[in-house]
Amino acid sequence: MAQLTLSLLDSFEGKSIEQICPLGFGKKGDADNHCAHFTSHVLRLNNHAVSGLTCAGMVYNGEKNAAAGGIIRVNDIFNTCMDIDDPLSGGCLAYYTLPSNMLKDGYMGSAKDKHVGICFEGFVYNYGNKHDKVRKNKIGDLAKIYGKDTITLYTALPAGATALSLEEIKALVTSP
């Protein structure tokens, strides 16, 4: 995996999903939650690293640009990764959900109240739909995202994760 750095992650701060997704999935003000989508593009989490629905699947029905796609569901990412107790210094993923969204077998369910971001050096880089942009929060600042019952979970980065710059994300798109 390429090295995560603060400068790489800071370069995404303030960007909208329209600026990040090279396949054009997601618009400012749409009803879709883009936290997993953002996280997946930055870490190149597509069906080679994590199993689940991607933006390429939504845009091209999975018929082209699969390598440029990113997973769009939080639970697809969580359910593929290894749980950890505390954030890792080299980076990990932070999740926020309600206890009722966690299944008895430890998997995350598909309830809408779930959020993910890239946890690194005391911050969580995540996509906030309220303002339609990437934000940088201190680790504890998102602990009540869904109210006082919000739980925070962490997973290690998947083995296939690769940190990418915005230019590298866009370069994954093949010509029509």
What do you see in this structure?
The relative contact order is 0.24. The protein starts with 5 loop residues before the first helix and ends in a 5-residue tail after the last helix. The protein is built from six helices and six strands. It has one domain. Strands 1-6-2-3-4-5 form a six-stranded antiparallel sheet. The chain is an alpha+beta fold and 176 residues long. The chain is globular.
Keywords:
6 strands; single chain; alpha+beta
Give the gist of this structure.
With 176 residues, the chain is an alpha+beta fold.
Layout of secondary structure:
Blueprint: H1 6-10, H2 17-20, H3 35-43, H4 55-60, H5 74-78, E1 83-84, E2 92-97, E3 114-120, E4 123-128, E5 133-138, E6 151-155, H6 166-171
Antiparallel strand pairs: 1-6, 2-3, 2-6, 3-4, 4-5
Our measurement of the CA-to-CA distance between the termini, rounded to an integer number of angstroms, reads: 29 Å
Number of DSSP strand runs:
6
Biggest sheet strand order reads 1-6-2-3-4-5
- Proportion of β residues? 15-25%
Shape verdict: globular
Give the count of structural domains.
Answer: 1
